[in-house]
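Narrative of activities, Objective 1.

The group set out to show that a structural description can be obtained from nothing but a protein's sequence at a throughput compatible with the screening campaign. Below is one input-output pair from the validation batch, recorded exactly as produced.
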Amino acid sequence: MEKKRPIGLIVAVVVGVALGLLGLLGGCTSIASLMTQDSLVEMQAQLGRGDPALAAQAEVTRRMIEVQAGFRVWMFLGEGANFLVSALLLVGAGLLAALKRSGGRLLIVVAAVAILVDGYRTALGVYVSWRSTSVMAEAFAAHAPAGGAAVAGFTQGATTVGLIIAVLWFAAKLVAYAAQIWAARDAEAKGLLG
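Output recorded for this entry:
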């Protein structure tokens, strides 16, 4: 006879699959972005030859990536950890859906580790973005004195909104991870996992 799955368990599985897939996709795109930054600078420098506006943009990009380069190893480590945790979230969610005790235990451990990994990635991302934005603001002010201050202000405002969204997303993920841990522990306590 099939064991009835409580709604909390179903939500934990769905959230685990969703966060796992989003994490894998985000990790792949972030790693690809980190790996192609130097090529982007070279391409923009070539395109900017002879055009002062494009040359100025290429210089801003070079300076921003220069700031990020100091954190590249730490960013790769965070994205690699995110990729691994995301894959394990998928495995844990699959095992939990099959009502395997190992799935519940794996999901509990991985969700706890994911909180640390996502906290690390969020903090590092906020810091690097803020540093990069200050480089942009300086460059706008230097290259376009008339409208540069307004553009710099808009850029800093947009970055602030983006950072607030990143922190809110992290908070939402904390709630999701906590719910997964609770649901997996609850299913184990009720003897649903074998």
